[in-house]
Amino acid sequence: MKKNKGIMNENLKYEIANELGVSNIVQNEGWGAVSSRNCGNMVTKAIEIANRNYQ
Questions:
Q1: Residue-number span of the structural domain to which 29 is assigned
Q2: Which of 2, 5, 7, 23 has its CA 20 to 30 A from that of 14?
Q3: What is the tens place of the pLDDT at every residue in 1-19?
Q4: In this structure, is residue 31 part of a structural domain?
Q5: Residues 6 or more apart whose Cβ sits within 8 Å of residue 42
Q6: In total, how many domains does the chain have?
Q7: Is residue 3 part of a domain?
Q8: 5 domain-assigned
Q9: CA dihedral sign of residues 44, 19, 14, 22
Q10: Region 17-45: what's the mean pLDDT?
Q11: For residue 34, which of 45, 43, 25 has the smallest C-alpha distance?
Q12: What is the pLDDT of residue 53?
């Protein structure tokens, strides 16, 4: 069975989670415990970073 590789780098995910104040949730309960709202905020932040790096 082929395992899907995540699009976002793990280090970047943890950096964004830390910036948004949800890294403690990730450490204690895993990514599945992060709310949908916070996941959306993480995606928004990742897009902002990508746009900055692209320009």
A1: 10-54
A2: 2
A3: 555 566 778 899 999 999 9
A4: yes
A5: 13, 16, 17, 20, 22, 34
A6: 1
A7: no
A8: no
A9: negative
A10: 96
A11: 25
A12: 85
Is 39 inside a domain boundary? yes
Q: Could you count the other beta carbons within 10 Å of the beta carbon of residue 15? A: 15
Contact 27, 35 (CB under 8 A): no
Per-residue confidence (pLDDT) for residue 47, from 0 to 100: 93
d(CA 19, CA 49): 13
Q: What is the average pLDDT score of the chain?
A: 89
Q: Which amino acid would we find at residue 14? A: Y
22, 41 Cβ separation under 8 angstroms: no
| C-alpha span between 19 and 30 (Å, rounded) | 17
Q: Provide the percentage of residues in the chain whose pLDDT is more than 70.
A: 89
